[in-house]
Amino acid sequence: MTQWSYAASGIPTGLRYADCQIPLRQFGRTHGISAADMRAVFEGVQVIERAYVAAHIELQAQARPDE
Question: In the chain, how many domains are there?
Fold first, then answer.
């Protein structure tokens, strides 16, 4: 929750990647993921990021159906 950037409207715009690198590296070390395979992990994080942003926008639109 703490690594998200938000627009002035309160809608999340995406993760702050620089701030995510340390926990991602620690995750890789803890789970025995090679540095080469960490790219795939990061790409997975990006898929989750895009889905979260899209879902948040959709939920906001449903909350305000008159707009």
Answer: 1
